[in-house]
Amino acid sequence: MPDTTKRSGLWTRRQALLTGAGMAGAAMMPMGFPVLAFAEDQPPIGTWPAGSEGDTVYIGVAVPRTGTYAVQGEDELKGAELAAEHINEGHALIKELAPKLSKGVLGKQVKLVVADSGAKPNEAVQAEQRFITENKVVLMTGSTSSAVAVALNKLAQREKVLYVSMISGSNDTTGKDCVRYGFRQCFFGQTAAAAIAPVLIKEFGKDLKVAYMTPDYTYGHTVTKSMQDMTASAGWTTVTNQVSPLGAPDFSSYLLNIANSGADILINVNWGHDAVLSIQQAKQFGVLDKMKLAVPYQVPFLARETGGLMQGVYAATEYWWTMEDKYPLAKMFNEAFNKKYGYMPEWGAENSYISIVHWARMVQETGSFYPPDIIKTWEKGETIPSLVGDVHYRPEDHQCVRPVMIVKGKMEADMKNKEDFYDIVEIVPGEGLMQKPDAFGCNLGDYT
Fold first, then answer.
1. Measuring CA to CA, which residue among 169, 142, 165 is closest to residue 271?
2. Kind of pairing between the strands at 400-401 and 389-393
3. DSSP assignment, residue 50?
4. Which family does the record assign (predicted)?
5. Is a pLDDT exceeding 50 seen at residue 30?
6. Residue 216 DSSP symbol
7. In terms of C-beta distances under 8 Å and separation of at least 24 residues, what long-range contacts does 391-395 make, across chains too?
8. Which residue would you say has higher pLDDT here, 319 or 25?
9. At a CB cut-off of 8 Å and minimum separation 6, what does 178 contact?
């Protein structure tokens, strides 16, 4: 289980004076004597320097372990656990992703403190606030719901503690709700729509009537809007948009409206167990006999949990394990993950792993845990490796520019093994997919 040991790490006036005296003494030491790594001329900010005083630094992880997004949350947690383990031991994959790292970050071991967010923003914020106070975490992560990601963005900016979202599909996360202290590695609604729309139009044709199923929060609304925007030029029109609350137990009323809408295609934006239930019930109601199904933002484990209903269905995703044939680092990750957990990783695990490793790389490159300096290192926008090739983060909105994969569900007869659910149809480069950095209203805010 992840370490949840509490530590106070309080930065007292006496400690500050002693450290200042130590620095003054170190300045008079012979060349080669180790000097403290942090930005000693800066006042304390957030959990710095208290959070990095000892031989261990803590990362606060708030993911859904119960509720409609629990399956995906557990997968994210496994990716975070593996990232911490690999960073601490100096694993060969870490050497490829962050060559300057060597058994820890700036010589310190990384430990996770973990909470169940239940995909609820208030619970996630309360958990991370507790981690800030009690554990002096130097990084926050988590989210599966974009409502949680947006809430933790705001907490990060207020408390001046870095945050990397895990799964967050809303355009708003690095759009109107972006913050200086928040970064996102994963793909999102606009990039998913820009990648999958041309494939769907080519496959199904122009001038189609479309029914949408949309979860009623920032993720759902922005993904649906992006899909509508990206298909409008082909004459696709929305005949119904069925908006449902998170965790709806029954989709029958929404599906009845869709069945009677005359739609040619159903675009299901629901996520987690909501996506599973709504697709299964769509089959039961005969909706999938009347119209095609597409999933613009693929849900980890969806093919497995829907019992074959993703066969022949197109989806956009961040990562699918068979891309290891193209990306050697993906193969290394798949092998390590499968060895530890007994299954091939889904994109929640991949995203949480690489997000934490990218943070560790930035800290090591900075030579300090001082947050404003880490942010400025990140904002250089340098090309760095990931599990899907070289990527970079945009300084204007802290969004990672990365490819999006279009997959199509395999027919059961074509599956080579029990986890061979998808064919990769296309890998679309990220650079041409993304909106301009200011298109969704990003204003990052202050460093201090």
1. 169
2. antiparallel
3. G
4. Belongs to the leucine-binding protein family.
5. no
6. S
7. 391/185, 391/430, 393/183, 393/358, 394/437
8. 319
9. 153, 397, 398, 442, 443, 444
- CATH class of the domain at 13-187+326-401: alpha beta
Q: For residue 144, what are the CA distances in angstroms to 199, 277, 310?
A: 26, 18, 21
Token pair for residue 30?
């012979």
287 within 8 A of 294, measured Cβ to Cβ? no
In the beta sheet, which residues pair with residue 426?
Answer: 406
Beta-bridge partners for 108: 105
Residue carrying structure tokens 């999958």: 196
More confident residue, 259 or 32: 259
**Sign of the C-alpha dihedral, residues 439, 124, 98, 52?**
positive
pLDDT grade for 403, boundaries at 50, 70 and 90: very high
Alpha-carbon distance of 336 to 323, in angstroms, equals 15
Read off the amino acid at residue 26.
A
* DSSP string for residues in 329-373: HHHHHHHHHHHHHSS---HHHHHHHHHHHHHHHHHHHHTS--HHH
Contact indicator for 324, 338 with CB cutoff of 8 Å? no
Q: Are the C-beta atoms of 401 and 431 separated by less than 8 Å?
A: yes
Q: Contact at 8 Å (CB) between 364 and 100?
A: yes
| DSSP, res 45 | B
Locate the DSSP E strands across 257-306: 265-268, 292-295
- Asked if residue 46 lies in contact with residue 136, where contact means CB atoms within 8 angstroms, the answer is no
- Residue 41 has a pLDDT of 84
> For residue 14, is pLDDT > 50?
no
- What CATH code would you report for 190-317+404-428? 3.40.50.2300
Confidence of residue 160 (pLDDT cuts 50, 70, 90): very high
Strand order in the sheet with 139-142: 109-116, 56-63, 139-142, 162-165, 182-184
Q: Where are the domains of the chain?
A: 13-187+326-401, 190-317+404-428
E strands of 48-166, at which residues? 56-63, 109-116, 139-142, 162-165
Angle between helices 70-89 and 347-366 (to 10 degrees): 40
pLDDT higher than threshold 90 for residue 6: no
Cis status, amide bond into 300, omega within 30 of 0? no
What is the C-alpha separation between 136 and 303, in angstroms, rounded?
39
Q: What is the DSSP letter of 414?
A: G
Distance, in Å, from the CA atom of 47 to the CA atom of 321, rounded to the nearest integer, reads 37
Give the tens place of pLDDT for each residue, 162-218: 999 999 999 999 999 999 999 999 999 999 999 999 999 999 999 999 999 999 999
Which tokens is 31 given? 């060349």
Same fold: 13-187+326-401 with 190-317+404-428: yes
